[in-house]
Design brief:
transmembrane, about 130 residues, 6 helices, DoxX-like protein, mainly alpha, single chain, about 80% helix
């Protein structure tokens, strides 16, 4: 029971973080436009990333599709982490590294969820 609650908390953590960032992506907030302009993929990258994050949230909250959502979340967050490390820097527009930390937290939650579902993953790969 406690372990099940822990995994639900991980899923909710991912969902809350991603849904919160969706608002900024879809409302063309100054920070989001700056980030995706710096990456050279504004506006399509911003909107596409927002759509990918929305799909990730939906998949991660449905028990049958948890594995696919967690894998997708890992992929999206690897992109965000690499963007911070190689283009944007850890701190973006004086945020104190908050966006980078949220990307790391989301990535780690998704990795743990993929590991939890490793048996299903192995069955799919065989």
């Amino acid at each position: 029971m406690k372990l099940s609650l822990f995994f639900w908390l991980l899923r909710l953590t991912v969902a809350v973080i991603l849904v919160q960032t969706l608002y900024f992506k879809f409302t063309t907030s100054e920070e989001s436009v700056y980030i995706f302009s710096s990456l050279g993929i504004e506006p399509y990258g911003r909107i596409g990333t927002g759509v990918a994050e929305l799909i990730t949230v939906i998949l991660i909250l449905i028990p049958r599709t948890l594995l696919f959502g967690a894998i997708m979340g890992c992929g999206v967050m690897v992109g965000a982490i690499f963007a911070h490390l190689f283009v944007l820097g850890i701190e973006v527009k004086n945020d104190g590294g908050t966006l980078f930390i949220l990307a790391l937290i989301t990535f780690l939650c998704c990795v743990i969820l993929v590991f939890k579902e490793r048996t299903r993953l192995m069955n799919l790969l065989n």
